[in-house]
Write a structure and sequence with these properties.
This protein has about 100 residues and is mostly helical. It is about 60% helix and about 10% strand. Strands 1-2 form a two-stranded parallel sheet.
Length: about 100
């Protein structure tokens, strides 16, 4: 049993070292800051934010549709009334929704 634990730890150690070295070698400019790995906000997402801010200034209360391109093309918010806004686009991901809601 002791031998199994030693071999398991040795395997994990070598695996972590090889993964880390291959990560550095495969990236031209390895960047270890957290902002580097967060997705960039698209121009479409930024324009949706402007549309939403204009929509908020017009309406006192609002209802939102969040989601991907399936929600954008599948649901017409005007059918539900004037206080519904679709904040979905073809590049929507969970991080964009998180930024929008926070």
């Amino acid at each position: 049993m002791n031998r199994l634990i030693k071999k398991t730890f040795l395997f994990l150690f070598i695996f972590i070292i090889v993964s880390f070295v291959s990560f550095i070698l495969l990236n031209e400019k390895p960047n270890f800051s957290i902002n580097y790995y967060q997705p960039n906000l698209s121009k479409r997402f930024l324009s949706k934010i402007n549309e939403f801010e204009n929509f908020i200034s017009i309406n006192d209360t609002i209802n939102l549709f969040l989601g991907s391109s399936q929600i954008e093309t599948g649901i017409d918010p005007t059918l539900f009334g004037g206080q519904w806004f679709s904040f979905s686009n073809d590049e929507q991901n969970i991080y964009n929704s998180y930024i929008f809601l926070s």
